[in-house]
Design goal:
By secondary structure, this protein is α+β, with helices and mostly antiparallel strands. Helix content is about 30%, strand content about 40%. The chain has helices at about 5-25, 30-35, 55-65, and strands spanning about 35-45, 50, 75-85, 90-100, 110-120, 125-135. The longest helix is centred in the first third of the chain and has 23 residues, at about 5-25. It starts with a helix and ends in a 10-residue tail after the last strand.
Amino acid sequence: PGSLPSDQAREAEIRKIYATWVDAWNRHDVPAMASIWALDGDMVEPDGRHADKRSGVTKLFEEEHGTVFKTARMKLSVDEIWFIKDDVALADGTYEIDGVRGAQGEELPTRKGHFTTVWLKEHGKWWVAASRTMIPVQLIWRPQ
């Protein structure tokens, strides 16, 4: 409500890409997952690991989904999408990952976090230009 019809249409496009991406993530289909990244896009994991370019993102997904995420499942919720320009958007949301395995094969607690994605539309298609994920931690100077 209150947004331009063009924003609603662009937002629907991006939300559809997220839904397709989560499906690929849950099937551990690395080529499909990485295919939404721009050739020069990047990704930063909650631990600070940086994957540069689509090739680096692909390599990161291959490593993760071949090991710790091999049996994991993700839920993702897109909270907001802001259109900075007609062809640039910023999306924020949350995610949960269950079934992550530790080094000894033990199941780890559910991973809950936030994400921010910069989207760029080129040649009629939306691409991830930058993805940042984080896991909230209690800051020592804030009351519990």
